[in-house]
Every structure is written in C-alpha cells, then in structure tokens.
Amino acid sequence: MKKKIRINLSTTQTIMLSFLLAILAGSFLLTLPVSAANGRAIPYIDALFTATTSICVTGLVTVPTFSTWSLFGQIVILFLIQIGGLGVVTIMSGLMISLHRRIGIKDRMLIQDAFNLNTLSGMVKFINKVLLGTFIVEGVGALLYMTVFVPEFGLEGVWISIFNAVSAFCNAGMDIISESSLYAYVHNPLINIVTMLLIVLGGIGYIVWWDIMNVLKNGKGQKWKCFSNLTLHSKIALSMTGLLILAGTAAIFIFEYNNPLTMGGFTFFEKLQASLFQSVTTRTAGFATIPQENLTNASALVSLLLMFIGGSPVGTAGGVKTVTMAILIVSAFATMKSKADAELFHRTVSKQAVSKAVAVVSMAFIILCTSTLLLSAVTDADALDIAYETVSAAATVGLTRNLTSGLNVFGKIIIIVTMYLGRVGPISLMIALNTKKEVKNIVKNPTEEISVG
User: Fold this and answer.
1) CA–CA separation, 441 vs 309, rounded Å?
2) What pLDDT, in 10s, does the model give residues 358-377?
3) pLDDT digits (tens, 9 = 90+) for 103-120
4) What is the pLDDT of residue 1?
5) Positive or negative: CA dihedral 358, 361, 364, 370
6) Percent of the chain with pLDDT over 70
7) Where are the alpha helices (DSSP H) in 154-188?
8) Distance between CA atoms of residues 41 and 31, nearest Å
C-alpha cells in the first residue's frame, strides 16, 4: 500500500502559492479569444503580465486595458483586481462564511498571517467587516463616479464607474476610459476628490478604520480627543499618511509650477489639485492626471520616494509601508541621540518592530536594486525611467514614464517577477524560502565589537 505524500506548507507559503495560482488562472482566462476585443487571442506573455498586474494591484500594462480587452476580459481583470486588493485568503474565507462552513484553526492562521494580526480571535467578524466595508466604500465611489461618467458615456458609464471605483480603492490604477489614464479629468474636482478618497481609504488599512470607528463609538462626547485615544499603530499610520501627502504636494507644486509640459499653464487651484493628486497617487495607486515622463527630475525623485514608502499595513496599498518607515526614522534618531529605545507618541517601540522594519526596507532595497540592474541589462532606456519602472512595480504603484508598453519579453518577465515579489512582500518571501525549523541557541557565540558608520 502506497503512502500518501503530504506537503506541509506554512501559512506564508500558502498565501504566496494562492497568489501565484490566481495569477496563472487569470492569465489562462485572459489568453482566451473571448477575452480580446478583436476576438483574437492575446500573446500569453501579455495575458500573464495583465493577470499579474491585476492580482498584484499594480497597474502597469503592456497593452491598453480599455481597447485590448472585451467586456469578458475586463470583467476577469476586475475580479482579479478585487481578489488582489482583498487577498485570496479573504475572498476564500468570505465564501466559506457565506456557505456556513466552519473556519478552522489553519484558516484562522492564514487570515492572521495575511492581515498581520496579533490574535486568532474574532476572525469571522473581522472578515465580515472587511468585506462589508470594502463593498460599501466601492459602491459609494461608483455612484459618485456615475454623476460624471454616465452623462459622458451613457449606459457604459455605469460599468466604467464600477471598474474605476474598485480599481481606485484597491490601489490598482487601471481604467477603461483611455490610454492616457485620467489626463482628461485633471481639472475635474469630483473625479480627483473621489479617486483620492478611494485611494487613501484603501491604503490607510482596515485596522485604522475599525480603530477610528471604535473610538468615535465609545468616545462619550469627547470626539475632540479621538486622535489621542487611537492605538499607536493608527496614530503612526494617519500621521505619516498626512505628512507624506502634504509634503509631496508642496514639493511637486514647487517643482512643477512653471513646467509647461505638465501644469505650467494651469491656474493656481488647478496646479494645487494636480500636485495633490500626484502626491496621493504615488502612494501605490497608479492613476495619473499629468504625464509622468514630463515631470522634472526633482518631481520624479520625490515620486520615487513616495512610491517606495507606499501606504499603510493591512490595506490595499503596497510599498514598505508608512509605519515601517516611521519606525526606521525614529529608531535612527534614537541611536544618534544615544537613547536605548525608540519612542513614538510617548510609547516605546519594541525591538522586534525595529528589527522587522530594518529587514523589510533592506529586502525591498535588494529586490529593487536587482530588478533595476536586470532591467538595465535588457533595455537601453534612460536610467531614471528604469528606476521609475522598477520602484513602481516593486511598490505595486503602476505609474510609468512610458516604458512598460515598449518592454521586450525579458523586460516583461523581470517586471512580472518584481510585481509579484512586491505584492507578497520581501519578508514573506524570506519566510517562505526558509524551510529550516527554528532552533533555540543554547550556546551563544562570543560577542565582539565592530565599527559601524
């Protein structure tokens, strides 16, 4: 009698595998002739690229989304974006709940790992809140979009509004309006405001949502003390998000003020609006209202930094995350001031959090350097354009300086791998590859001082 071979995967490996399987399934559907607008099968490399950018909620595309894909193809892409934004584990858990199936301990561990939670309790309630909150926000966003898109596109505007709302909330940055993203709506306040709100709400993280609502609910008339009653995580996420958006807006406003290729001819309010949108969209959203290739070098570098940092943990955004960067900065200043511990909002940051922040940023930097070097080897594009492409892919942003559509097969493969690694996260990758069981060191090696810096 043959023994059954059982493959024991860790929760991290299961999550990574689920994303990979979703990408392969999506690429298969997109390579079918029915998915193409002209009825002829799209080359598999482009179908694979589109499936990856959708699941990884990146937004870089090698073929125009609005003209390449049929309605069926666009529906497949939208489902992939929604799955990528919420996570495969969340979708599967939601289906299990709707079918009244019990969520076992292994499933709870998957959810805990997927959302980086500290407890296994209340998982079903958490998933229900995530799904309900997501669909409510996306639904409201779609209704607001319809006030502009339905008068402009007729009945098709309903589908465009739904697609845009899901794409914006999931920080995917893909649209079915034109090849030039949202350039035509650079002066439209409603489209700008709705898109930015969806991006921020998706990228701020679900933990912050529930924390704010709990504080408001239990505030007992002390709403003005809302911020002080939030958890440390929420305080850091909100503060860093606000700071980065304002700083990015100010920098881009200054650097692009007289640039005739972007917003030099805009009014003062239009320049402010375009600068704000650019600052928000670099937080891993990927929509654009001004041509990225026409940005000044200074604005491009600011955008690179904002893309690298990205959104907040336990949300739909990518990047190394706002909380990670905040911990790294205060830890550096604490070291320079000879302090034993890093502090934020009168709370001590744990050594474990600092170590994880260093690991996340270090691994992200290694992935970026490797990706940039490899892409430079297979294309002769400008160095800034290549860096913009790889940072955009690794941070799952989706902004490009007109490089994606011109990539050769090797370039496409490099960006596909970079998008995947960016979505699953550098730390998840290392944990998944580490097959050795943790062994406690009973005997430690001797310590020796070394020079640093």
Assistant:
1) 35
2) 888 998 999 999 999 999 99
3) 555 555 555 555 555 555
4) 47
5) negative
6) 82
7) 156-169
8) 6
**R_g of the chain computed on alpha carbons:** 22
Phi-psi region of 181 (alpha: psi -120 to 50; beta: other; left: phi over 0): left
Contacts of 55 (CB under 8 A, 6+ apart): 19, 22, 23, 26, 80, 81, 83, 84, 423
C-alpha–C-alpha distance, residues 56 and 425, integer Å? 11
Contact of 421 with 56, CB cutoff 8 Å: no
**300-345 pLDDT tens trace:** 999 999 999 998 887 778 888 999 999 999 999 988 888 888 888 8
Question: Which token pair is 7?
Answer: 């493959």
* Residues β-bridged to residue 199: none
Q: Write the single-letter amino acid at 371.
A: S
Q: What is the token pair recorded at 177?
A: 């309006």
Least-confidence region, from 162-176, 310-324, 392-406: 310-324
How far, in Å, CA of 72 to CA of 161, rounded?
17
Length of the chain in terms of residues written: 453
User: What token pair was written down for 360?
Assistant: 């996340």
Domain count, the chain: 1
- Domain around 118: 11-214+226-432
Q: Fill in the amino acid letter for 308.
A: F
Any domain includes 244: yes
Residue 339, pLDDT score: 87
Spell out the residues 6+ positions from residue 221 whose beta carbon is closer than 8 angstroms to its own: none
pTM of the model: 0.87
Is the pLDDT at 152 greater than 60? The verdict is yes
Q: Is residue 2 part of a domain?
A: no
147 lies in a domain?
Answer: yes
Sign of the dihedral defined by the CA atoms of residues 86, 318, 384, 271, in that order? positive
- DSSP letter at 64 equals -
DSSP lists the bridge partners of residue 343 as 348
| Rounded Cα distance, 93 and 16, in Å | 16
Q: Say if 441 falls within a structural domain.
A: no
As a whole number of angstroms, the distance between CA 143 and CA 187 comes to 20
